[in-house]
Amino acid sequence: MGWVIISAICGNLLPAYLFAGAIAKDIDSSLAGILNSLTPICVVVTGLLFFRSKIQSKKIFGVVIGFAGLTLLTLAGKKGISFENVEYTLWILLATILYGFNINIVGHYLKDVNPLHLAAVSIAFMIIPTGIVLWQQNFLQLSFDNNDTLVAVIYSVMLGIVGTAIATALFYVLVKKAGGLFASLVTYGIPFVALAWGFYYGEKITVLQVCCLGIILCGVYLANMPGKKETADSSQFEFETKK
Known about the structure:
- The protein is mostly helical.
- It has eleven helices and no strands.
- The longest helix is centred in the last third of the chain and has 32 residues, at about 145-180.
């Protein structure tokens, strides 16, 4: 139960607060996106430093290549990144580190727990702290007769159900079946979805963007490419611990 609560704090509660706080300070969205894509790297680093995880060098190389491709894609077409309120970008960096800890915790200590049960307990635990935040922010004092307020609340509930509850359960299923490193690489899939929506709404996709997507795919492939039989000194990142 203790690891489930820690997972809830590291995987949902604190990152949600940190991201919301950083966004409220109007930090540069491109910079935020680049820092968010550090999640797979944080999974590797925290796994090696704190969980004694084993990992092949080619997987690290693949993660770095994917990150480079995503960074280039984010910067493509931009004249530069605004560093206004840059100190709040550290909040996003801390959130990605917490994601790294959470994925390793799930992979090492909670892999045998039913993902639906894990997600349910994890999210239920957040009711108390988030309720306190709503109370401090005078949520109950809002005018619910106002149409804009109702729409905002409805959208927030939908985001919580789809973007947090369902997404958390699916993510834990992915960690259990495919491993933490592969699950963390879903971060690299965000630009594909973003470009697809942009294309749907009439935005042009440049050759540079396509090339960057290719780099990301190469990185993901390398990070998950099956290799030859491991020697005693190397193995893949499967949340095993050295004896």
